[in-house]
Every structure is written in C-alpha cells, then in structure tokens.
Request: fold
Amino acid sequence: MQNLFVDLISKELSLVSRSVSNVLSLLDEGATIPFISRYRKEMTGSLDEVVIGSIKERYEKLQEIEKRKEAILKSMEDQDVLSDELKKKIQATYNLTELEDIYLPYKPKRKTRAVMARDKGLEPLAKIIMKQFERDVEGRASSFVNDEVADVEEALQGARDIVAEWVNEHRVGREIVRSVFEKEAIISSKLVKGKEEEAAKYSDYFDWSEPLRKCPSHRYLAMRRGEKEGFLKLNISPDVDNAVSRLDRYFVKGNTSASDQVAEAVEDAYKRLLSTSIETEFSNLFKEKSDTEAIRVFTDNLRQLLLASPLGQKRVLALDPGYRSGCKVVCLDQYGSLVENCNIYPHQPQNEYQKSSETIMRLVEKHKIEAIAIGNGTASRETESFARGLKFNHEVQIFVVSEDGASVYSAGKAAREEFPDYDVTVRGAVSIGRRLMDPLAELVKIDPKSIGVGQYQHDVDQGQLKKSLDVVVESCVNSVGVNLNTASKHLLTYVSGLGPQLAQNIVDYRSEHGAFDSRDKLKKVPRLGARAYEQSAGFLRIADAKNPLDNTAVHPEAYKIVKSMASDLGCKVIDLVNDKNLRQKVDLNRYVSGKVGLPTLNDIMSELDKPGRDPRESIKTFEFAEGIYSIEDLYEGMELPGLVTNITNFGAFVDVGVKQDGLVHISQLANQYVSDPNQIVKLQQHVKVRVTQVDTQRKRIALSMKGLND
Reply:
C-alpha cells in the first residue's frame, strides 16, 4: 500500500519517488518533521520542512480515504450489491468526491419519495420512462394503477421521483452541476429581517452578492460568522435555468411524451436534490479553502511572532500599566526569575509621580536592571512617557511589549504552577518581562489563538488550526534550539521527540541532579529512550559543556566525524571550533560515506562557524510619536512611526500609540501592486505611516504607507 501512496504523492507534488518513500518510512518510524529536515538530508534529497509537511499531510489524507473505502466496501458487501467492476472502481480512486459519487446510489437511504415509489412497484415504469421510447406514457402508466397507486398521475409522479433520484445519483449529472457551480455560482448575503441594529457590524453584507470564485476567504468567513450568529442568510447558487438546461442536454433524448416526463424529473432533481446537495458540497469546499487560507495567514504571523527578536539574558524590570489599580512592577534576573515585585501609582487618580519615580530608580539600581518592558495595554503611553522621563545612573533600554495573551497565561495552569503564591497581576507582569527577554520561550505557554494575530481564527476548523499551529511552534522551537538547563517544561514539550511527559521528566531530573553537563546525560532521564534521544538531542543546547559540540546543532551521531576532522588536522575539536583557518583546511569529500553526504557535512561546518548563536535578529528599540495618546490626537495627513501588529490578506494593522490599531489596506502598502502583504511588511516591523482617515465614532483609523518606507 505504501508503494502506491509513494507513486501518488510523487506525481501530485512532482517529487522523486525515493525521497517520498524515505520520508514516509521515517514518519512511520516516529521521526518528526524538524528531525527529518535537519538530519536526514541524504535520505530526502534535502527536502525542507514545508515539502515534508506537504508529504505528511497528503499521506494522512490518503490513509483516511483508504479507511473510507474499507467502510464503503463493507457496506456494499453487507447489502450484496458489490460487483467486481464496482470493487475495482472503488479501489482505483483516491478522490474523495469521486468515491462518494460511486457509493451514493448504494448508500442506505431514509424513506425518500423514490423509496416509497419503489415500494409501490413503480420502478419498472420509471425504467420505461427513462428509455424515452414510449409515446403513450399515460397508457403505460395506467397498468400500474392498483390498491397502492390511486391513479395515473400518482403512478407518473412516483416514476418521476425515481428518475429524479437516478439523475441526482448519476456521476455525470453531478459533474455537470458541479461545473456550473464552479463557473457561475453567486454567493449572496441578506439581512435577517428585524436584526438591523444587532447586526450593525455586518452592515457591509446586508445586501451583498458576488461570484463565489472571486469571494476572498476573509469575506466568506465574515459572512459565515454573520449567518452563524443569526444576522445573515447566505445562498450559493448559479442561474437555475442554465443549470437545468445543461442537465436536459445530457438526460433528455428525443421528443416523446416519456422525454417530457424525464425533463420534468430532471428539473425536480435539480431544484429538490442536486442544487441543495451541490450547494452544501461547495459551501463545505469553500469553507475548507477559506479555513486553509485563514490558517496560513495565522501560521505565517505566528511564526514571525515566535521568531521575533529577543533581548536575551538581561535583567529586566517589567511594568503592567494601569490607572486606578496602578502599575504592577516586577524585577526579573537574567534567567527570568522573579526577584521583587510591587505597585506604583504614577497616574490619575492617585498621581503619585514622585514616589513612583523613586521606587523605579531604587529598583533599577538595586537589581542592576538593564531594560524596562512596558505592556501595551491601558495607560501604556503614559507609563512609557513616565519611564522615559527618569534619569538613571546607567543605560537602561525601554521597550513597549505586546500584552496579547498575557492575561490568559496569568490565569492559566502554567502560571499557577510556576507562581502559586502570587496573583494574576504579578504573573501577567512577569509574562510581559519574559516576553521581551525571549518571545519564543514565553509565547509557547499561551494558546496561540490568544496571542492576537491572524484573522477569523475562531471561525475555522479548530482541529486543523491546532494541528497547524502546533507544527509552527515545533518548527520555530527546533529551528532556534533550546537551552537544556534553563528551558521550561512548556518549551521542552515542543522539542522534537519529547512531548509533555518527557519534558516534565527532564525538568524533574534537572531539579534533582543539577544542570546537565553533556547531552549524553539525557539518556539517564527516566523513559527517555534511544528513539527520543535521537530525535531531540540535536535541538538541545548546553552552554559551557565539556564537549563544545553540545552547544551546537551538530547531532551526537556526527560527533565522530568532527573528531576525525580534528584528528586528521592534528588538533582538538575545540581548536576546530575556535579557528576558522583550521576549518578551511578540511576537505569534506574525505568524510563522505554511504550514510553521510555533503549536505550533512556542509551543515556541520556551518555550525562550527557559529556555535551556540541565536539565529534570530537583534532587537531594536522603538518610540511612538510624542503627544499622541488617543484617537482624538490624530488628524488626516499626519505622518507617524508605527509598529506592525497583525497581517491579514486585506492589509496590515499598525499601532501608532493610541488605543486602536490603524489599518493599512493592501492597496496602501506600497506604490506598486501588492498581492500578499507579507511581501511588504513583517510583524513587529518599524514603519512610517500617514493618517488618511479618522472615524472617532466607529473607532477606526485608516493609514497609508505609500512613499514613506522606500
């Protein structure tokens, strides 16, 4: 069976069969995508994570189709309707729609009109009508009148019901209607009567229609949400007359009274059965397509957010701003541990500016604070101005940090386990500070849906969304690498080959035995076997390890290669790591073997060039424009610095320092045509924008980047 899957996937994705076969074998053995991509390049032909992910996704779908085929074959065998020809057809198809079309005539039915007509013995009449030779249909129908069939009209109606069902279940008939839907279907949206006020946010769709094929995913999901909430009615359909005409051309033959009966049955089949069935099919297909696109947008944003620039191991003071309740202050050491916390009240109504200033100055000196992180929620701008107005005795960088998801974390199980003796305000402030130090390590503790990026994430298939987001988190964690001695259980969970239980076992072992001084010590962690070690070791880093390779992405299975290189040069491994001139003398071709090729050897040399280096970009400070605190401070034509906070298919949202983010529509991102906003902007990018419209009543800000960021 796997050989068949290899052939199908290879053709669909235009890949070499050997590479696909090896990927499937590795997946079946329990290997993860990051591991396969990073450490099995010779087997895969250096396929990247995206392609390997596509192979895995198609493999899983083919396995699902195979299970469905087994269920269909069993159902048909139980009904004693499975011929050799049908069995071959079913076994040969790997298209789910085609498979369901084959099965449809044999699918157990409820008491339909056609079933009741058959029970009355009218199927022979339906067959006569379907042949379309009979010129005196009423005469033939009269012979079917009996105790169960009252008259000729009832006989003809029953026969037409059976013919309509045949048309509905006919593979060609369904393909005809699908073709019409695909080319001509119109999606329309109407307001539910009496819901005008409640549905105000959907006002754009109160009377909307457009070709379904041109409807963007975000608009479709918005209308679906409006329908789900009971404010809108949606319809997807092509021109009825055209659809029926196309069916007539296929099913109606000749010019007999029987042909007239078939034409009537065809129209009934379309209006009563086919249109509803195919509308549902297209609605589901378009929902799936829209979900896929929305999830792609979300995962792209999440990847950017997780790989955002870290401050690194610095001592941080974090401020969670507020007015009446004050600002929560926490001080963290370079490892992110909480060392002190308190409250200050620099804003209204208390206005304890002087006392608050003295407190911050004292804490900065006491804990040798190197950076201040300020949450971007309520009173953020005022707190930022307060902090920037303080004069410290040493350099202190100030950053505004997104609070999205911090409240979710602070009230969740992870925060309660970590800080059982502190309330949610302290936990939230700690999260803000840690997010500045290492966004990836902190954000993995939070449900990605709560992080505040993406579009319509609550409307898409939640299972598919979680699966896709988990893949992104796993990819990001493993691409950066994880410090084995400082990583939290949550971060370790996403390391290739581990998972929640082994992550907890590592943390427990570390607590009991102290820091790991080598990767080899991982083998002593309870239940961490050879397979888990193989999958995870290369992604775990140990700073200041005895073996310098333990702080690189060089896999332990390749250590002997590096040792051979060093031995051949008459030096130690540490010399090879530290001396570029020595590395340049290495002839990689000498170390090529049956299992190890140049792709792996080149990766090894790249790692020796930059052992332990974080692949993420360095963080940059950012300041909002002075004097801009609320939407009322904005006016058309004003040019401002801003931070990109979210990217969607229709544009990018930018924080300019007021309570609401402004939208840079896709048409306003650049002077040239833009098909994908990600071509122009990235999350957390520092940009310059021009205010083009301010709607204080609806709290909407329109921005433009045209000509400002060249």
